[in-house]
Amino acid sequence: AKASGKRAFLRYADAMDGDIRRRANLIAALRKAVERGELSLVYQPELVLAEGRIGAVEALLRWHNPEFGDVSPSEFIPLAEESGTIISIGEWVLHEACRTLAGWHRAGVDERLKVSVNVSALQLLRSDLPDSVSSALRRCGLPASALELELTESMLMANAEVASERLHAFRRLGVSIAVDDFGTGYSSLSYLHRLPINTLKIDKAFIDGLATPDDREDTTITTTVIAMARTLGLRVVAEGVETPGQLAFLEQNACDIAQGYWISRPLTEDACLRFLLERQAQ
Ligand code: C2E
Ligand code: CA
Ligand code: CA
Ligand code: CA
């Protein structure tokens, strides 16, 4: 029993060792990912329900590395955050998203189309973030109203003071702010109400339960968030809409915007341009 316990431990230690090594190797590879051109963005359309129009696209980061293949953002973004690489990656994302949107506008896409960019906690802490944002806009010739920044509810809570300062700077620039993954962070509404926020994105976890046989809780939460947002003058986006039933529920309950596989998967720059032009022509 003793010997087999030892073997089990060694297997465990080996697996741990493998994990640690993978993390270290991924972090080293991430440092060079921008300059080696391994990063790209895909874009997921957001449907304005009352108008049947795509109002925005969310930029989502992808990483393809020759050794590791496609690495999921849920694995590499936390590593980029821990190692500080997210700062240069985040700058690249901002500029690339703005460059793409400006190109689409020139190609005939509705000028009202916005791009929404995810911002990490470490980026938010930096006092030069508002400058990076305005310089990306200026370099691409975009008005500030073309950009929305997504910050998670838990990020805003964890860094209340700094968050408030940055959000006011964004407001002064004219960039809009969305609270991402809303509903998962247990924030108090009175707190959020004091911040200059434009949009709430209801987390997919709540949308999953809509229009299913046992949907009481998720239904209540979603309708409550929509009503509350209306009172506060905020837009509401439902994330992760995967079925026509969920979409119908959201339309009936006056949700503003829907995003999810049922509307479109995230698309490459070219595919998204085709998607947008085709829909406009309809
Ligand atoms: P998020 O900001 O909550 O993004 C939504 C995620 O849900 C995306 O995953 C998207 O592909 C996925 N999704 C959208 N619709 C559906 C649906 O109908 N069903 C399902 N199952 N999934 C759906 P993705 O692209 O893997 O990104 C994961 C997370 O990585 C994002 O969550 C965000 O937190 C982070 N992320 C992605 N790009 C960036 C970035 O450029 N910067 C930062 N800081 N974080 C990013
Ligand atoms: Ca997001
Ligand atoms: Ca989200
Ligand atoms: Ca999420």
UniProtKB/TrEMBL annotation:
Q: Does the keyword Nucleus apply?
A: no
- The transmembrane residues are none
Provide this UniProt record's keywords sorted from A to Z: c-di-GMP, Signal
The EAL domain is annotated at 23-280
MF GO annotations: cyclic-guanylate-specific phosphodiesterase activity
Designated name of the protein: cyclic-guanylate-specific phosphodiesterase
Q: Which organism is this protein's natural source?
A: Thermomonas brevis
Q: Which residues of the full protein are shown?
A: 473 to 754 of 766
